[in-house]
């Protein structure tokens, strides 16, 4: 093993790790008055690490346990970009809440470090180490407003259920190791190709997928999402639904499709059921929600169901569809949560959908962006959502999954109701008391503008996303 070579391969992760430790020292020395400096430093580290990802070349490290390829590069850029924007959101949010803490951007940085390790893992032990580094930081972030009962409850629920899911996954990994004699993804694939999948490996696969399904909040392990999304600080919720979702889906793709490449029929049955149930629960359960963050939690569950259709396909086309979908989802949601974070009246945060009534009459630009983002999440033409859904539905149909694809289209039609309800409240309801002016700080308008522009223009220039996603899918499944 060439240590120097391995460290070069890990350059983005090392930049983030060393930078996070340096930022921690700055915060410990200067206290909370250094929060703005630490936030700028951590956001800059995300940009530098992203540049390192972009200039990296395909390679492996630590005897193949860590892989750098176009697939990991695509997802890492999404993760780092989302994390940097969430740091900007957090800085503005906690200034408004008069609860500035320098630990927040550092925790986001450490969680992001775990995510980068996850998406490059090619060994179940490396996968688990990255996953736990991410999870421990996320538990703290969920409960960061420790004087807020809802935030404390969110952190506790997330911790207890997250620990259960991690144990479930670890048990599945131990079964896989016990029946194959290896923790390398390629080694497991080789054993399955030679000997097939016995009942022991099937059990291991089920437990592994159960743990992964929890991380993406898909049915039947979705129960934590509404409470955690509602109780967590808004920029933390944005982080959960963007960077964390991208990392979890990328991990699921690599941890299922590579070691079980010769067991597509076995895992497809599980994924199809999870996908269909998630699409429909997300579509139906969100209809009665009045709190917009809870609605976005059920929206997230539904969108994970649509994305999983690509995994169920088990093909390169399916991976491409999933990557396009998670990119659309991350960019659209970062804009949506900027809008949600800007929902303040007399300096206090408000979260009910009814608080948006008549917004178009008082703040037309903000209202248009909010409505456009909701329209995109609904998957209606001519915005980004329809592009992403077309790719995953086509991948599923080409793999013979006609019925799940049709059920997905029907669920999308049902789910469009609650997105359009928000647009209706914004444009047609009698005005409520006006929300505070502004989006909550510098940089927020830029984030919202870029997210909305992406939403509106993707159908015109789809090659911006489709080309990189196809290259990433080809790198994973040549």
**Which sequence of strands runs across the widest sheet?**
1-2
The chain-level structural class is mainly alpha
Counting DSSP H or I runs of 4 or more residues, the number of helices is 20
Write the H/E string, N to C.
HHHEEHHHHHHHHHHHEEHHHHHH
- Runs with pLDDT <50, length 5+? none
Which band does the percent of strand residues land in? under 5%
What's this entry about, in short?
The protein has 20 helices and four strands. A hairpin with a 2-residue loop joins strand 3 and strand 4.
Description:
The chain has 20 helices and four strands. The strands form two sheets. It has a two-stranded antiparallel ribbon. Strands 3-4 form a two-stranded antiparallel ribbon. Helix 12 packs parallel to helix 18. It starts with a helix and ends with a helix.
Features:
mainly alpha; two-stranded antiparallel sheet; globular; 478 residues; 20 helices; two-stranded antiparallel ribbon
């Amino acid at each position: 093993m060439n240590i120097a070579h391995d460290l070069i391969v890990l350059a983005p992760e090392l930049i983030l790790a060393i930078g996070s430790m340096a930022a921690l020292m700055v915060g410990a020395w200067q206290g909370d008055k250094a929060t703005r400096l630490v936030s700028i430093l951590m956001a800059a580290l995300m940009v530098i690490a992203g540049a390192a990802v972009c200039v990296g070349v395909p390679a492996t490290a630590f005897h193949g346990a860590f892989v750098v390829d176009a697939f990991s590069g695509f997802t890492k850029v999404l993760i780092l970009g989302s994390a940097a924007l969430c740091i900007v959101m957090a800085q503005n949010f906690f200034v408004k809440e008069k609860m500035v803490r320098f630990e927040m951007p550092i925790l986001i940085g450490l969680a992001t470090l775990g995510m980068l390790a996850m998406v490059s893992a090619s060994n179940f032990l490396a996968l688990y180490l990255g996953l736990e580094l991410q999870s421990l930081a996320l538990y703290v972030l969920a409960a960061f407003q420790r004087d807020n009962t809802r935030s404390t409850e969110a952190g506790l629920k997330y911790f207890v259920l997250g620990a259960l899911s991690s144990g479930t996954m670890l048990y599945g990994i131990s079964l896989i190791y016990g029946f194959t004699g290896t923790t390398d993804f390629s080694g497991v694939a080789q054993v399955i190709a030679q000997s097939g999948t016995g009942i022991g490996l099937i059990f291991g696969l089920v437990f592994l997928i159960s743990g992964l399904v929890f991380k993406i909040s898909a049915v039947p392990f979705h129960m934590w999402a509404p409470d955690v999304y509602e109780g967590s600080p808004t920029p933390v919720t944005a982080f959960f639904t963007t960077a964390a979702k991208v990392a979890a889906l990328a991990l699921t793709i690599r941890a299922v499709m590579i070691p079980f490449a010769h067991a597509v029929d076995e895992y497809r049955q599980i994924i199809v059921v999870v996908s269909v149930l998630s699409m429909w629960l997300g579509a139906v359960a969100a209809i009665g929600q009045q709190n917009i963050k809870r609605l976005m939690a059920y929206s997230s569950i539904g969108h994970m169901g649509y994305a999983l259709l690509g995994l169920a396909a088990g093909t390169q086309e399916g991976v491409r569809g999933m990557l396009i979908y998670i990119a659309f989802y991350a960019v659209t949601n970062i804009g949506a949560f900027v809008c949600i974070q800007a929902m303040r009246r007399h300096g206090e945060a408000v979260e009910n959908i009814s608080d948006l009534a008549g917004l178009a009459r008082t703040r037309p630009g903000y209202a248009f962006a909010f409505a456009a983002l909701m329209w995109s999440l609904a998957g209606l033409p001519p915005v980004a959502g329809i592009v992403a859904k077309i790719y995953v539905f086509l991948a599923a149909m080409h793999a013979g999954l006609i019925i799940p694809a049709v059920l997905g289209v029907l669920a999308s039609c049902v789910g469009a109701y609650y997105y359009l309800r928000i647009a209706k409240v914004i444009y047609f309801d009698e005005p409520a008391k006006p929300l505070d002016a502004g989006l909550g700080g510098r940089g927020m308008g830029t984030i919202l503008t870029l997210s909305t522009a992406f939403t509106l223009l993707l159908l015109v220039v789809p090659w911006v996303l489709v080309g990189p996603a196809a290259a990433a899918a080809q790198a994973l499944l040549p």
